[in-house]
Each structure stands twice: as structure tokens, then as C-alpha cells.
Amino acid sequence: MQINTVDILILGAGWTSTFLIPLCKDRNLTYAATTRDGRDGTIPFEFNPDPPRDELDEERERERYRRVLPDAKTVLITFPIKVRGASERLVRSLGRRGFGMYVRSFLQVADFDLFYYLFIYHQFGGAANAYSKKQGQRKGSGARGGEQAPPKPIASKWYDRHTPVTPGERADAESELLALSPEFNTTVLNLAGLWGGARSARNWVNRVAPTKEALRLKGSIHLIHGLDVSRAILAVHSEFSNARGQRWILSDGRVYDWWDLASAWGLPNSKSTTVGSGEAAGNLESTVVEEDENDDGERGPHARWVRELMEETGIRALPRNVELLGRAMDSREFWTTFGLSPVKARLE
After folding, report:
1. Rounded Cα distance, 269 and 120, in Å
2. Can you tell me whether residue 283 is helix, strand or coil?
3. How large a percentage of the chain has pLDDT more than 90?
């Protein structure tokens, strides 16, 4: 049976929904979710970012929204929108459904990136949209069939929510959404790297640092647990006036050091580890990390590499000073504005 009205509508239920749905249940918030194939009791729905051919095609699209999607106070979008005009068309199509008292929010998540995208849109009262650049390397930037090319060093710099965003497809979509304010009040959340549940940060070590030279150039990493992402979404949902028309950065308030993590974690398997396809590998072709007799059999070569790098660069202890790590994110304003603190404030 079609639900007429919900508090939260998740367009593209994926990883984030595994934290958000339980939190909605705990807080007695109603919800509905969509997937392309309608699995697990979700609503089958797929957004077409391409512009309609004519007015009749546009009206059919709006009618499909009215027929398939329940009305909602907040809508979360977990698929990327890159086509110019698509974000605005989606917002305006939903905004013309005639339910003026409701908020709509859009959450966007990009797989394998260390930063993900959250779009939240609020009709007649404010919206939040989150776009985040991923940190470090571009997706799939590793060298094919062998070692991953080391990333270029980045200048040490603090970033906060007022730092300009580098233009690009996603940045353009974000600006497009923000430009709808104040007609459709919008805001932006920049999410740090997502972890929790099936996403283990330990599995990233052999992807980002398959060689000592790759590890040499690794600096900072910023993270946020799925539970804290969900808490932030619901905070914006309930107090949208605090977020209206603004951009925010969301992390757990820490700047992690890749050397520190690689030294402590190493590889998930001993002796030699093959980085294959899938999430942990970041869609890179297989890379084998070999140990030698001086390595820790439980953690592989990374602890030795870090020890050698510390000697070579004069680092006396880990983690390194923030000034040596490159990009550093300041997310204090979000947590202060909404009166929250991360509950998953350290990696486990």
C-alpha cells in the first residue's frame, strides 16, 4: 500500500540508510525508501537526469513523481547528479506537488570517494545539500596493472565551511541547488570520509599506500561515522532555519595521520596481500604488497615503512603535527550550531 506522507523519504537507499533508518525508528519518525529495482520492500524509482523533450514529457515526469513517491518532510538522494539543470528540475518537480508545508532533502553519496555528497532540500522552509570533494586522489587514479602512482603533495592549509569549492560537475550541481535559495531554501553539507558497518577504514591502507613512496606522500584523512551522518541529517531536518542557505563541513572533528593509521593497522592479511576489485580496492587492478623478513607477520610492511620514513624525515612521534599533513578540515561550526557532538568520535 502506498504511504501518503512520511517524515523521511530516501531516494536510493544504500549505505547511509543502514544507519538512518534505525535512527528514524528510534525517534519514531516515519520513512520510505526507493531503489532502482524495489528490493527489500522499497519503492522502485529511478531519476532521469536528462531534460524532458517537451512540455508533455515534463508533465509525465511530474505525474510519475506524484503517483510513485509519497509526500515527505525530508527527501534524501543517494545517487550522483551531474547533468546541468537536473538538480533544479528535480527540486522544482517535487516542489510543485502542492504540499507546501513539507521539507524535502536530497542526500548524494559517491562510492569509493573519501568524501561523499549530501544534498538536502527544504521546500518553503529551507534545504540542505551536501557536496564534498574527496580528499587525496581522483577516483581510479592508480596506475593500471602495477603500482598505484603516488599522489601529489598538497600544501598545508585549514579548510572550513567558508572555503571556496573547486568548480566541477558536482560543484556546479551544488551551486545550482544553492541558487534556488531563497525560493527553495538550500544549504550544503561537506561530508568527510564515511566509515562504519561494512565500511572499514582499515581496508583502505593497502589501497592508498601499496608502496613506501605512496605512503611517503600521504598526509591527512578526515572521517565521519554513518551514525553521526544520520544524526546530522535529522538535526538539519528538525531545525532547518539554522542551516538555511549555508554550506557546512561535517567530520568527527579530528585530523587523522595516514602514517599513524598505516603503522598501527598495516595489512588485513599477513605475508602478502592482493588488492583486488571492489570497495576496498577502489576499482584498481590487483596490486600485491610483499613483505620481507623484517616485517611484522601480522601487519605487513607498513609499520616498517613508517618507521623508516620517520627516520628519514626527522619525525619523532606519531601522529605528525597537523601543519605537516596537508589539508585540514574544521567542522566545528556545524556541531556548535546544532548543539551536537559526534558519538563516534574516534576510529575503532
Report:
1. 40
2. coil
3. 36
Calculated CA dihedral for residues 298, 326, 331, 177, nearest 10 degrees: -110
pTM reported for the whole predicted model: 0.79
Indicate the Cα dihedral angle 189, 190, 193, 196, nearest 10°. Answer: 0
Alpha carbon distances (Å) from 42 to 48, 65, 117, 234, 270: 18, 15, 22, 20, 41
**Do residues 248 and 193 lie in contact, with contact meaning Cβ atoms separated by under 8 Å?**
no
Burial of 323 (0-12, 13-18, 19+ CB in 10 A): exposed
Residue for cell digits 542557505? 245
174-205: pLDDT as tens digits: 788 778 887 776 777 778 888 999 899 998 99
Distance separating alpha carbons of residues 213 and 289, to the nearest angstrom: 13
Query: Which residue type is seen at 45?
Result: F
Residues 6+ apart with CB under 8 A from 253: 331, 332, 335, 342, 345
DSSP annotation of 300 = B
Task: Return all residues near 78 (Cβ < 8 A) that are at least 6 apart.
Answer: 10, 11, 12, 13, 14, 15, 16, 17, 107, 108, 109
Alpha helix segments (H runs only) across the chain: 17-26, 55-68, 86-95, 169-178, 205-208, 212-216, 226-238, 258-265, 302-313, 332-337
